[in-house]
Design a protein that fits this description.
By secondary structure, the chain is α+β, with helices and mostly antiparallel strands. Among the domains are: 165 residues, no CATH class; 122 residues. Helices cover 63% and strands 8% of the residues. It has 17 helices and eight strands. The chain has a five-stranded mixed beta sheet, with helices on one face. It has a three-stranded antiparallel beta sheet with strand order 4-2-6, with no helix packed on it. The protein starts with a helix and ends in a 10-residue tail after the last helix.
Length: 444
């Protein structure tokens, strides 16, 4: 993730950038329609005198009413947004707030209402009666304000519907799962050098001497400029080893990366290397697919808490987690050893299938507390994942997840008949996982 790309993503995720663009567009529209007075105004007034022949007092009153109502509605929209943020934070997870701030319809609605208010102020400033000197009434701009007001009313109705829909758990999970699926598609496989062949575990011998490069600040590692990292290593004829995965918390002064060689990097080169790593106060999903899984897991754990006790929401979370793991199960996880034509250049560090499967399923299994519906859906998810991969290491990872689910069923399911039924399904699944895989029964 280059610095320009990082800045663009931060602007898109802010609550002020899109509204600012909309307000700027409304200002440009007001200036254009006011200046168009001398081009088309007289002809329009002759053709439609009742539509374009309003007086200055009426135009001022109408523009004042529109401006007042729009800024009032903008305050209502802002209040509704805060209520939605508070509800999502308390009901689901505090990490949902960033998703609501990134919501493009909310950004557009706020921008449109404030933009209409600014538009009316600019047009109102130009309306002059005969008592104030040479009269000026940009009727085309006044009609434009009426049209924008009608559009704002329709947009308010849409926004009420959008808020009512966006705070539903199905919409929240769909949005998070969609962002995580895009991250999985982007990162697996990722492009960082040429990579080693799939049958190689790594180079025969790594460099013996390494020098730490300290982190310049404290925060979460949210992105790495992979092409820049490979280019840096090639230019300096060194091997760069990442000390942290994307999503890890980095402490200022602690190692951010390590470089091979007999001597340390000078200060300028160390700063250049650090600029290839992006540190922020909170994680993002763009290069951090496990964070998307973590958000869904948070919702599931909140639903399974004694204070809420909503197993249906937990089941929905398990369905989305299973879909994301199925998407990942058949994908190639790149080797951490990345090379170019001259040999090994970068030792990357990232998640694998087992770590993501453990992150997604283990906490939900441990917090199920004998909820038969949740345990049965976990077992069903493992059955689906079994048909998505033939790789022995990934099937072994699924066996470990199955052992946890089986232990939860045997310990916590009170009804003997239901417990025996689930244990029999788990036993058959364990036999299939232990057998060599043939071909996936479902595509990821």
């Amino acid at each position: 993730m280059s610095p320009i790309r990082e800045m663009w993503l931060r602007l898109q995720g802010s609550l002020w950038f899109v509204p600012t663009l909309v307000v700027a567009g409304c200002i440009a529209l007001a200036v254009l329609l006011i200046e168009a007075h001398g081009w088309v105004e007289l002809d329009l007034a002759r053709r439609w005198p009742r539509l374009f022949g309003a007086g200055t007092d009426g135009a001022r009153s109408m523009l004042s009413a529109i401006a007042t109502s729009m800024i009032t509605v903008a305050g209502v929209v802002f209040s509704m947004t805060l209520v939605a943020l508070s509800l999502a934070s308390s009901q689901y997870s505090p990490r949902m707030l960033r998703n609501f701030m990134n919501d493009r319809p909310t950004q557009l609605v706020l921008g449109v209402f404030v933009g209409i208010f600014v538009y009316c102020l600019l047009v109102l400033r130009t309306v002059r009666g005969d008592d104030d000197g040479p009269g000026f009434l940009p009727s085309l701009a006044v009609i434009g304000g009426v049209v924008l007001a009608l559009f704002g009313v329709a947009l308010l109705i849409y926004f009420i519907h959008h808020v009512a829909t966006s705070i539903q758990v199905s919409s929240i999970l769909e949005r998070i799962a969609g962002d995580t699926a895009v991250a999985i598609d982007r990162l697996f496989p990722q492009v960082l050098g040429k990579g080693l062949s799939s049958n190689e575990d790594g180079p025969d011998e790594l460099p013996r001497r390494w020098h730490d490069v300290a982190a310049p600040a404290t925060g979460y590692l949210v992105g790495v400029d992979d092409e820049g990292l490979l280019r840096f290593a090639a230019q300096h004829r060194r091997v760069v080893q990442m000390a942290h995965c994307v999503g890890d918390f980095v402490i200022e002064g602690r190692p951010l990366a390590r470089v091979s060689g007999d001597s340390c990097l000078d200060d300028a080169d160390a700063r250049a290397l650090c600029r290839l790593f992006s540190l922020q106060r909170q994680r993002t999903v763009h290069q951090d697919a496990p964070y998307g899984l973590q958000q869904i897991v948070d919702v599931a754990l909140k639903a399974l808490s004694p204070g809420i006790n909503d197993p249906t929401t937990a089941v929905m979370c398990i369905d989305h987690l299973g879909a994301l793991l199925a998407r990942l199960a058949g994908r190639h996880v790149p080797s951490p050893y990345r090379s170019d034509e001259q040999g090994l250049r970068v030792v990357a560090k990232g998640p694998d299938f087992e770590s993501m499967a453990s992150l997604a399923l283990d906490p939900v299994t441990e917090h199920a507390r004998g909820d038969t519906q949740v345990l049965a859906r976990l077992l069903r998810t493992l059955q689906v994942l079994e048909g998505c991969t033939v790789m022995p290491a990934r099937r072994l990872a699924l066996q470990r997840r199955l052992a946890l689910v089986m232990d939860g069923i045997s310990r916590n399911v009170a009804a003997a008949a239901r417990r025996d039924e689930l244990l029999e399904q788990g036993r058959l699944l364990a036999l299939r996982l232990a057998a060599p895989g043939t071909s996936p029964s479902a595509t990821p």
